[in-house]
Amino acid sequence: MQKPPDSEDWLFARPGSAVYELMLASAYQRTDGGDPDEESALDFAAADVRAVRDSLAHSAFMQRAQEAERLVTLAALHAAWNRANPERPARPGSISWRSLRASIALELQMSEPAAENLLALALTATTSLREALDRLAGGRITLRHLRALADNVADLDGEQTRELEQQALAVAEELPAGRFEQKLRLLRERIAPSGAVERRRKALEHRAVTVDAGRDGLAYLTLGGGIEQVAAAYDYASQLARHLGRGENETRTHTQLMADSLWDLILDQGAQAVVRDGDGALLADRTPLARGIVPTVLAAVPVLTMLGADDEPASLDGVIPIDIETARRLAGTAPSFIRLLTNPETGCVLSVGRDKYVPPAALRTYKQVQDGTCRFPGCARAARQCDLDHTQDWHFDGETAADNLGALCRGHHLLKHAGGWIVVQGPGGVFEWTSPLGTRHLDRPQFAPRGAPPGLRRRAGARPKAQAAWLDSPSDVPPF
Q1: Alpha-carbon distances, residue 241 vs 75, 210, 234, 244, 362 (angstroms)
Q2: d(CA 408, CA 415)
């Protein structure tokens, strides 16, 4: 087998790349008309640095031009979509808008919130910030500059928007994106000082809680709120950490203690504090400060992994991998987890532990384990938080059977029935989605039932009268 090239050689020796062409030109310039033996190796290296710098500048210019072109293309797609659907134009918040957002997300392989933000930026840039868009196309500002400007013209009238754009672009090319964002906030307050209260109110409408799975078992919980709430919570956690840090045997850092204190407040463990008497003497190493609610997390653990005979990974909520020691601990002792043992040969559920007093219906539990998440491509919402949908509608003779059911979050459930998408469930629980743009996307279950008999192909996408009535009356229970 041929030995792979050295990493540095590979970087500089890819024919056709911008780096290769500039390095070639640099080598020609320093050897043409002169004796290369008279130049030091340091001079050669400096010339190489300049050549790579030029390549970096060129790639940055091309990237910005492509980003501007993509924004224009997205705005054109939005216009074409509305022309094709004059009775259901894609306005923010509508089913048509959400369907377009999902289509864009799958085409560009990004999350739906990211696709929505990009589409909103495209519409703002092509209608209200065309000069800034031209600057991006010319490589003079970055996409982050344009995005910050678009965020700050929200809720401004036309005249205020033009004034802010002119003043912002006068300094945009001189400032890095972070400094530019700070400058924008000052400029906006000067141009529209009376709207600060209303802008805050609207900003707080976007508060949310999100989860990002990190590496090696670490994850991040992001909580949005008012600046005064965040500052107060941070200060409270810092105070708790200082109290905890006074323990004689405490080895955790201040930031680790802050994180542990907040987790203890949220979970049913109780925040722990060090208690001393009036003279400073230690009375107790750990005293509960607060109690929280008991969470429920779905832990899927292959049975041979439990027995130590296999290393098939376990997971939380079907998407977050956990190490074997954590999986064994959860499945063996944790009272706030549903224990699910799966057969490594068939992928089917073998056992549901008795950690819950009232267990879920067997079929629902089976599908939650098999699906893991919402079955719309790219959606990471846990299946246990989703609706269990009939792929072939119940009113079109669909059966309540494992091969005709799938977990769909409420948003994608709506898209399936009213967003113009077509869904087919094939053997092994594989979903095939066809978007309104005509593109097909596959989604596979978290645990494919190997060895299980092939299921019937179920087709969905039509909208029966009963479902139309439900869509017009959100208070009713959907007849799925």
Answers
A1: 49, 24, 11, 5, 44
A2: 10
